[in-house]
Amino acid sequence: MDQKNEHLQDLQEIRSIMERSSRFISLSGLSGIFAGFCALLGALAVFVYQQDFFYGRYYNHGIFLKEDLISGVEFSKFITFIFFVGFLTLLLALFFGVFFTTRNAKKKGLPFWDSLAKRMIINLFIPLITGGLFCLVLLYHRQIYLIAPATLIFYGLALINASKYTIDDIRYLGISEIVLGLIASIFVGYGLLFWAFGFGILHIIYGSKMYWKYERFDNKSK
Asked: Is the pLDDT of residue 157 over 60?
């Protein structure tokens, strides 16, 4: 019986070594949680701005008071504000991602920046950059209602593409983002709501799941 237990322990150690050598496992669930909260705050800021700037100033009794609402100065101000909030949200999400993942890697005694991390980042950013350029094309053609679904779909593709080099939970998050983006492309009037759910709520859910699954016991043991 003791011999069987020793064999099982040996197999588990071999499996752990193989997993560490083939996948980037230092990714922290806390980074996903904090990124989700940042996305929710960003969506809230856009919602408040939209309610005040568009509906509070230019909407009365069921009609818009200006016909050039989505083509003139108002449109430019709104897009500038969205890009500013989106850029700030991205910077905060990246900051928390690097901070918590670096801390998790140190706790596990693993390198934060190695060949696996580089492959994961490259595979993540190829669809992300493509999606960003595609959203600029949509903006150029004034197809604003498709930008939110497009960001969700391309982000989901990026996660799936990067999941080959990290934990499997990232793949499931990517699939969820794609499905949500396809639904959002049908219900185009609720783009901000879908965006908040995809980048906010789903990140918090999957981040919490990852933390509970991979990090909770490590933190308790130290």
From this structure: yes
Query: Whole-angstrom Cα distance, residue 82 to residue 50?
Result: 10
**Domain boundaries along the sequence of the chain:** 34-54+64-99, 127-222
CB 46 within 8 A of CB 40: no
Q: Give me the DSSP letters along 95-151.
A: HHHHHHHHHHHHHHT--SSSHHHHHHHHHHHHHHHHHHHHHHHHHHTT-GGGHHHHH
Token couple for 31:
């980074």
Say if residues 156 and 177 touch (Cβ distance below 8 Å). Answer: yes
Give the whole-angstrom CA distance, residue 1 versus residue 4: 5
Q: How far apart are CA 153 and CA 163, in angstroms?
A: 15
| 158-200: pLDDT as tens digits | 999 988 888 888 899 999 999 999 999 999 888 889 999 999 9
E-strand stretches of 37-122: 59-60, 63-64
Asked if residue 28 lies in contact with residue 100, where contact means CB atoms within 8 angstroms, the answer is: yes
Q: How far apart are CA 4 and CA 163, in angstroms?
A: 34
Would you say the pTM of this structure is higher than 0.90? Answer: no
